[in-house]
Design brief:
This protein is an all-alpha fold.
Length: about 180
Amino acid sequence: LPFYSEVTVTGFPVLLATEFKDMINELRTNLLIAAFVGVLLIGFATRSIWLAAMVAVPNLFPILFVEAIIYFQIGQISVTEVVALTLAFGIAIDNAVHVINVYRSQHPGKGSVRERLRFSVGEVAPALAASTMIICAGTAVALTSSLPILTTIGGLIIATLVIALVTNLIILPANILAMSKDH
């Protein structure tokens, strides 16, 4: 049959079967690039590479922590998990922007770095905690799904956001305080 001499199977399942590992690695690389660009944008916006460096640790820690858990439990991260971590990272870096914004709005003559950080965290913590809990509560609906992929996404987003909230309210101010000349 000359008309049917060659059949090519195509589609998303075939693509996943042949390109899965490369696609995952590209997504993970893009997540790290997005994290790096986010930190650079904070440095550019604040005109302070010092503040950008202070933001890097508390915002990369939640992602790397959750990835480590996935690696030790499953051994490999999936496309869905990388997408969930990317979304959570965007919200996490937003938390850092709020802390830095309030901190920088405090005039240096208003007190020591410690006092300005205490005020800044006290000012933004309730709003950040409330928004994180609202997003987590909305995402928790996914945990009741019978689809395993949705429960995974929900759990990852919640874990990453909670860790990011804690790191941005504790580690970020601690970094700034530790690196300042005025302890």
